[in-house]
Amino acid sequence: MSADPRPPASRACAYCNRQPRVAAFDPFCSKGCADRDLLHWLGESYALQGNSPLDSDEDPV
Q: One GO biological process from the UniProt record (predicted)?
């Protein structure tokens, strides 16, 4: 199995889906997209699912 000499395919910006991404702001195409994505996280528009410690049936120690 030999290595592929071609460069990896460019993927689109993680926020606006435009191409090409800029290495300095990877995985985004610009500082603007990186900042808008961060604002979504800070504003709690995005959230990771998980169990709340308050939802646990176990007694706190």
A: regulation of DNA-templated transcription
* Domain ranges within the chain, ordered by starting residue: 10-44
Residue of 30, 27, 24, 23 whose CA lies nearest to 14:
27
What SS3 class is residue 61? coil
| 15-57 pLDDT, tens digit each | 999 887 888 989 999 999 999 999 998 888 877 778 766 655 6
The whole-model pTM stands at 0.59
pLDDT band at 9 (very low <50, low <70, confident <90, very high): low
Q: Cβ contacts of residue 15 below 8 Å, gap of 6+?
A: 28, 29, 33, 34, 36, 37
Q: Which two tokens stand for residue 47?
A: 């959230």
